[in-house]
C-alpha cells in the first residue's frame, strides 16, 4: 500500500508542476487577449479543450469525470488570466481569494 501511495505522491507532484505550467501559459494568453480586446471567456474554445482531452482518454476515468476536472481547471485559468490583467491595469488594486467561495468574476462567465 505504501508503494502505491508513494507512486501517487510522485504523480501528484508532477500534476502540480504541469498545472502551474498551464497557468503560466494562460497568463500569457490572457495578456494577448487583453491587447486584442478579446474576451477571457470563450465558450467555443473551452468546449474544444474539453473535447480534445475526452478524445485522448484511455480510461479508467470516464469522459464525464474529465469534463468536470477540466471545467474546474479552465475556470481557474480564467480567474488567473483576469487577475494578471487586473494587476497589469491597476497594480494598486489587489483582490483576495478565499478557497471554496465564489469570486466576483464568476458571475461574468
Strand-helix topology:
Blueprint: H1 2-35, H2 43-55, H3 63-89
Helix pairs in contact: 1-3, 2-3
Structure keywords:
single chain; 109 residues; mainly alpha; Chorismate Mutase Domain, subunit A; 3 helices; 0% strand; disordered C terminus
Structural class: mainly alpha
CATH C-level class is Mainly Alpha
Total number of beta strands: 0
Rough shape? flat
Kindly state the percentage of residues in helix.
55-70%
Q: Terminal Cα separation, in Å? A: 42 Å
CATH topology: Chorismate Mutase Domain, subunit A
Q: Radius of gyration in whole Å, from Cα?
A: 16 Å
CATH homologous superfamily name?
A: Chorismate mutase
What does this molecule look like?
Helices cover 68% and strands 0% of the residues. By secondary structure, it is mostly helical. The chain has one domain (2-94): Chorismate Mutase Domain, subunit A (Up-down Bundle), CATH 1.20.59. Helix 1 packs across helix 3 (63-89) and helix 2 packs across helix 3 (63-89). The chain starts with a helix and ends in a 20-residue tail after the last helix.
Outline:
With 109 residues, the chain is mainly α.
